[in-house]
Amino acid sequence: MTSLLHLAAEKESADVTDWAARIGWVVGLLLFIALVYWLMREGWKWRGTLQGDLPELPTAPDDPGPARLELSGRYHGSTSAGQWLDRIVAHGLGTRSRVELTLTDAGLDVVRPGATDFFIPADRLREARLDKGIAGKVLAEGGLLIVTWEHGEKLIDSGFRSDHAAEQAEWAEAINDMINTTSTTEGTAR
């Protein structure tokens, strides 16, 4: 009982909050976050400058022909072929967006609302496969449709994800059949 009275007699007030120190920490943290964002933006711009030798993206022809396949989904970006972390940012290829893909005999039309559209001519298509990742996006095995194509002197992998993942295998098969048909036709024409 004596110890209880002793504790009650020694009751102290709570510590006072040091608002100046808290505000200083918050301002410091916000400045640090702003610096990190600024450095990321500068790195993105620098990468685009390094990739400045990449030619302008081709546009779709006036009459590409009837659609073989159509797909709506997401465009997740482009990388150097075989190097899934080497993102290409020049000409807007690094910008993620919604996408409408149309495969015709002329090639692959990539329409991206809010980003730069481009066209991959059939003779520039090199491969299509299902894979699990591309820079900034990793999914389950076969979750992405990766289309390898030639642009200028560079091979590029572009990653797409359909709103209906089951149709991606059909796309990979159709593009590869188209590539094989195009290469066979070019081989007999020589």
Description:
33% of the residues lie in helices and 32% in strands. It contains three helices and ten strands.
Précis, in short:
The chain has three helices and ten strands, in the order H-H-E-E-E-E-E-E-E-E-E-E-H. By secondary structure, the chain is an alpha+beta fold.
Summary tags:
190 residues, alpha+beta, 8-stranded antiparallel β-sheet, two-stranded antiparallel ribbon, 10 strands, 32% strand
Compute the CA-based radius of gyration: 27 Å
The ordered H/E elements are HHEEEEEEEEEEH
**How would a textbook summarize the main sheet?**
8 strands, antiparallel
* Content-based structural category: alpha+beta
Global shape: elongated
Taking the alpha carbons of the first and last residues, their distance comes to 106 Å
Residue-averaged pLDDT, rounded?
Answer: 84
Which segments are poorly predicted (pLDDT under 50) over 5 or more consecutive residues? none
Number of strands: 10
**Percentage of residues in helical conformation:** 25-40%
Discrete helix count: 3
Strand content: 25-35%
